[in-house]
Request: fold
Amino acid sequence: MIPVLAFPDAASKRAALRRQLQDDAFVIAPAIHDVFSLRLVERAGYRSACISGAMLAMALLGQPDIGLLGLAESVEHCRRLVRVARIPITADADAGYGNARGVFHTVELFEEAGAAGVNLEDQVVPRRYGAGPDKEVVSVTEMCGKIRAACRARRDEGFLVIVRTDACAVESVDDVVTRVLAYEEAGADLILPMAPRGEAEIDGLVRALHVPVTISAGTGLAPAPSAGGVPLARLRELGVRRVSLTTLLPGAATGGMDEALQALERGASEPCAAVRGAAMLPALMEVATQHAFESTLLAVERG
Reply:
């Protein structure tokens, strides 16, 4: 039997994520930005992951998330990761790269790339990075048109349309509820309120909506402004069904690289995370299986 690296098809991974959300589970989706982070997420037993547009812009462009990363770049990076993933991965489509027609095209491309779904946000372009009162959101009517276009564009009903609203920064609590209820009616599969104003607002949104609420929770190790300052355990108690940990792995990687470089500069010889990580690489990248596969193919070639 030829040893192979087997990866589920896109439809199977989308169906798996749908089941996770329907099983009343608390879905934790760490953000990945390369195959190293993907493999570590899988190795740790997490059943889904996400691609954060903010972390991708920083990793690829060295820029904050202000809309500089193009659609083609985002889709191609998503395709590379999804191709070697055993778990479902959602992507970040920003504001959809245009009007409703642009959103239709964007969803087509991300679905073809194998993503399990996309985040689609209601910020005015050019977007603002982080939380703050300088944000602007499009009208409810315009955003609902984009959501309907996204739902119409997908060929696989398992593909998730995750709608993010930044209205918590600029609208009243009641207006935010009215807005997201319209998004739900337009076809949103999940609602992601960015930087809600504490527990009460999160609780109100969970109670008002029939679709799951998902929260961007930073590292997940400490309360994050994007999560309204609410800890992970409390988000679960409030009925939040999914959290994306956008800065956990990029933060760990940055801290680890900084620590390793400083240790080298000091001339330190004691084991550190870098030494342990280097030892993990062959198993993480399944080098032995790759070699066995290659040897089998070469043997067949030689007859």
Summary: The chain has a mean pLDDT of 92. The chain has twelve helices and eight strands.
